[in-house]
Structure formats: C-alpha cells, structure tokens
C-alpha cells in the first residue's frame, strides 16, 4: 500500500526555481523526460505560460512538475497542463508512492483550488507498472478523461544482454539488420547542432517527396536542441553511404527511458536498410549508457501500418504493448472546465 508523505514536514515552492536549478532537478529524477525540460516547454509554449512546482523535504526536492498554462483574460478560468509528468521517482531513492500522492495534493491545491484552473495531467506512468497509481489519483480528486486516447507504444526492456536482445528481434527484422550491416554504412552519432541540421535536411527532403501531414515541428525540435544543456540534449544518429547522408533518427535521452522521437530516410537509405542499423545502434547505446527502457515513440497500426510493423519487429518476438495510464483532470471550479471544453470545441471546428 502507498504510504503518505507528511506534508506538514514538506514545503512547496512555486515559480521560484531558476533554469540552472531546474536542469539539476530534472537530471535527478529517473522518470524525467524531454517534455519536462525547461527548454522544451519554453520553445513549445513560451516562458510566460509556464509554471513550475517543487515538493521539498528539507533542502531536497522529492517531487517536481512543469506545467503549461492557458488562462482567459479577466477571468479566473483556464487550464494548467502537465505533459508526461510529474516527476516523483528520484534516482537516489526507492520508489515511494507516498511522494506521488503528496505531489498530486500540492498540485491540486495550487492550480485547481487556489487558481481555479482545470488541472490536467497526461501522467508519465505505464499501465501495470505502478498498479496503485490510478487509485491514488482517484483518492486525490482526479478523474480519468476518457475522451483522450492514452499513449500507446512498444517499450523494449534493456536489462537482457545485447546478445539476448538481438536474438529476441523478430526473425524478419533481424534478417534485414544482418543484410544492412553488410552495406558499408558509416554511422555518426552525437548531440551537436551540425548533426541535427543534417537530420533536418534528410527530413525536409522526405517531406518534399512524400508530402505527408506534419504532426510535429522539426523546426521547434531544432530550436530546443540548441538550448538544451548537454546532459539533456537529444541524440542524433546519421547513416552515410559513400559519404552521403541517407538516414537519420533522433532520440530523447532524459530519465531512465530513451525515446525514439524522429526518423527520416531517403530512397538510397531505404534500399540499404539503413534504418535497421540506426535503430540497433540506438538500442545498443541506450543499454550501454544505463537506460532501462527504449520507448519506440508510439504504436498505431491505423496511422501508419508499415511503421507500426517496423517497430513491432524491433520490439521482438513478444513485444510489450505499453499503454500510458492516460489523462486525468481535476477542478475546484465549474467555470474552468466549461471554458476549456468550449475552447477545445472551437479549435476542433476551425481545424476541420
């Protein structure tokens, strides 16, 4: 059962943390991720829309959350949104669900009760890994927002040996990898801006050729990469043949889970199977650098069947279909939920 952290012995700080302090805080949590970094949200939402809350026990930060806020002028109404948070599992502590409970209590008090906002959390917990978490959310006044589809992906457990992980690859995927490794590809990996610029060019060429609808902004990710501190920068892998870049992928490497964020391949890279080499080298690097899981960045057979099967083959013979615990909401005022839903309905109509 979950224990309760005594809030009378803890302190709450809101919007007092500096950028350098937040960097150290994010680095100290195993459940941190790119979306909780200072620079991701500053680029994505603008610094003026961000709030940050710390749960402290003495001088130690035991829980933290970064929120994006949208408020209606002249009204005490709007939304405070935590995307893939909060952070409550420190690297140097055993998992303590009491910290999660205390953090949820503090967040609800600050944003739902005091500020009268709708507090929405896309919580960074997988179904089944913390079986008590859903009950804690309910007990702390949150309700699951069923209108939002939960994040689904393949998670690769990186604890087995590399030999066993390779054996676990789907046979057809492993055959493609074996063939691609004979194609005299050279892979360069790192975090510098030049590598990201090379990926950006491959991506732009792919988009110009395919003309697909973009659901993410690679331009934004490029800006984020320039601003992130070194320990939180995205890792870029570029495959070359005869000196020419033919494929690239981008990984988020914050916390204990590496995430496949972006990928692009030109026609030459597709013929040589360069994506197989890049993904295998990404997995190998994550394992060698102490990551626990490799999140393959979403799994939706309806959105892109070929990409789904590619990820499924990498996930192995018995892939772990991982589903996030979903989106949860709480509010102490009836006005904010009504205003937010109206705004979301209008935005949906304008996009259709």
Summary tags:
Aminopeptidase, seven-stranded mixed beta sheet, 14 strands, alpha+beta, 352 residues, 12 helices, single chain, 39% helix, globular
Question: Can you put this structure into words, describing what you see?
Answer:
With 352 residues, the protein is an alpha+beta fold. The chain has two domains: 7-150 and 324-351, 3-Layer(aba) Sandwich (Aminopeptidase), CATH 3.40.630.30; 154-323, 3-Layer(aba) Sandwich (Aminopeptidase), CATH 3.40.630. It is built from twelve helices and 14 strands. A seven-stranded mixed sheet has the order 1-2-3-4-5-14-6. A seven-stranded mixed sheet has the order 8-9-10-11-12-7-13, with helices on both faces. Strand 4, helix 3 and strand 5 form a beta-alpha-beta unit. Helix 2 (38-45) crosses helix 8 and helix 7 runs antiparallel to helix 8 (218-227). The N and C termini lie far apart (46 Å). The model has no long low-confidence stretch (mean pLDDT 93).
Tally of helical segments: 12
How many strands, which pairing sense, and closed or not: the largest β-sheet?
7 strands, mixed
Strand order of the largest sheet: 1-2-3-4-5-14-6
User: Might you state the CATH topology name of the largest domain?
Assistant: Aminopeptidase
Structural class: alpha+beta
How would you describe the oligomerization state of the chains in this entry? single chain
The percentage of residues in β strands lies in 15-25%
What's a concise summary of this model?
This protein is an alpha+beta fold. The chain is built from 12 helices and 14 strands.
């Amino acid at each position: 059962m979950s224990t309760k952290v005594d809030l009378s012995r803890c302190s709450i700080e809101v919007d007092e943390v500096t950028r350098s302090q937040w960097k150290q805080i994010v680095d100290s949590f195993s459940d941190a991720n790119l979306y909780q970094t200072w620079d991701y949200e500053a680029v994505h939402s603008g610094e003026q829309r961000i709030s940050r809350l710390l749960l402290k026990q003495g001088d130690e930060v035991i829980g933290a959350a970064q929120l994006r806020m949208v408020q209606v002028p002249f009204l005490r109404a709007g939304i405070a949104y935590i995307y893939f948070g909060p952070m409550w599992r420190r690297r140097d502590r055993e998992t303590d669900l009491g910290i999660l409970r205390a953090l949820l209590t503090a967040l609800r008090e600050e944003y739902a009760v005091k500020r009268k906002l709708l507090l929405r959390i896309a919580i960074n917990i997988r179904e089944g890994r913390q079986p008590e978490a859903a009950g804690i959310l309910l007990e702390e006044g949150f309700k699951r927002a069923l209108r939002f589809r939960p994040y689904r992906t393949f998670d690769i457990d990186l604890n087995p040996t590399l030999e066993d992980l390779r054996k676990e690859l789907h046979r057809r995927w492993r055959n493609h990898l074996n063939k691609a490794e004979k194609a005299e590809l050279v892979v360069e990996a790192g975090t510098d801006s030049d590598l990201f610029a090379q990926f950006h060019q491959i991506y732009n060429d792919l988009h110009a050729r395919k003309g697909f609808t973009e659901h993410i902004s690679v331009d934004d990710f490029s800006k984020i990469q320039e601003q992130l501190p070194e320990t939180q920068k995205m890792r870029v892998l570029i495959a070359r043949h005869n000196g020419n870049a033919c494929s690239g992928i981008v990984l988020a490497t914050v916390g204990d889970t590496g995430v496949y964020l972006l990928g692009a391949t030109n026609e030459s890279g597709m013929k040589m199977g360069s994506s197989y080499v890049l993904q295998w080298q990404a997995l190998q690097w994550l394992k060698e650098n102490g990551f626990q899981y490799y999140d393959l960045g979403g799994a939706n057979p309806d959105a892109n069947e070929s990409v789904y099967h590619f990820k499924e083959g990498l996930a192995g013979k018995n892939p772990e279909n991982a589903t996030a615990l979903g989106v949860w909401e709480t509010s102490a005022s009836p006005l904010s939920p009504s205003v937010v839903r109206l705004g979301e309905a209008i935005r949906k109509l304008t996009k259709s």
